[in-house]
Design a protein that fits this description.
- Strand 2, helix 2 and strand 3 form a beta-alpha-beta unit.
- The chain is α/β, with parallel strands linked by helices.
- The protein folds into two domains: 207 residues, NAD(P)-binding Rossmann-like Domain (Rossmann fold); 35 residues, no CATH class.
- It has eight helices and seven strands, in the order E-H-E-H-E-H-E-H-E-H-E-H-H-H-E.
Length: 263
């Protein structure tokens, strides 16, 4: 299927490993210019090397803590200088720390807000004027099934990822008439370091091993397995394509049937 995005520039945040890395590879496979960032230089160098080797596309990379305005500004300015425009923005980030309400400090709330919600606002605020000017753009946010079905012990993620969903729906109504789509992907249990960390945390609470917790997670999924980052990436790339030009304001779970809600 011809997706019509060859030559477009895609920026993916938190993209040196896991879901973000798979998304960067997906866009490279389609012949896009790719910009990646994370806080870890060695991971970025290795990811850029792998993508160039597989797809012949050399990603532009930069060190960026997405919770820091200065890092965001510096990285975005560098990407703009390199490619001239950013056509596709994928807002991705690691999950905030787990915890119940009584365990979380005000600092925890502030850090999660900057990481999950404010980073989306900051990146989107930078790229949107040019998208409006050229009357084409894609903003895709990676959230979580927690926006459909709150996850036990993930108070911060449940709160701020839902905020991203509200932001995206509101923005999609504002910019739809400029041929700009804004959508969310809500991954379920996916084979990343994050799922391992959650399993370890739940194990400490329940007294089970993390292996037992992972087995319990799989049992909750009708497809009886965990997802892969590549399966998330495939939907992201499709939503960025010309083929998906009439899809906006949506949140699409990719969870093997885990979410029980009807909408």
């Amino acid at each position: 299927m011809e997706l019509g995005i060859r030559g477009k520039t895609a920026l993916i945040t938190a993209s040196s490993k896991g879901i973000g890395k798979a998304i960067a590879e997906g866009f490279a496979a389609e012949g896009c210019n790719v910009a990646i960032c994370s806080r870890t230089k060695t991971n970025l160098i290795e990811t850029a090397r792998e993508i160039k080797l597989k797809y012949g596309i050399e990603p532009f990379w930069g060190i960026c803590d997405i919770s820091q305005q200065k890092d965001i500004d510096n990285f975005l300015s560098a990407v703009q200088k390199q490619f001239g425009t950013i056509d596709i923005l994928v807002n991705n980030c690691g999950g905030p720390i787990p915890g119940f309400f009584k365990e979380l400090s005000e600092e925890d709330w502030e850090n999660a807000y900057k990481q999950v919600l404010l980073s989306v606002i900051r990146f989107t605020n930078f790229v949107l004027p040019k998208m409006i000017e050229q009357e084409w753009g894609r903003v895709i946010n990676i959230t979580s099934v927690s926006v459909k079905q709150p996850v036990h012990n993930l108070m911060l993620s449940n709160s701020f990822r839902s905020g991203v969903t509200g932001f995206a729906k509101s923005l999609s109504n504002e910019v739809g008439n400029r041929n700009i789509t804004v959508n969310n992907i809500a991954p379920g249990y996916t084979l990343t370091n994050r799922i391992y960390e959650l399993a370890v945390n739940r194990g400490k609470i329940s007294g089970k091993s993390h292996e037992e917790i992972l087995t319990d997670m799989v049992r909750d999924v009708p497809m009886n397995r965990l997802g892969s980052p590549d399966e998330i990436a495939a939907m992201v790339v499709f939503l960025a394509s010309q083929r998906a030009s009439y899809i906006t304001g949506t949140t699409i779970p990719i969870d093997g049937g885990l979410t029980k809600s009807l909408f």
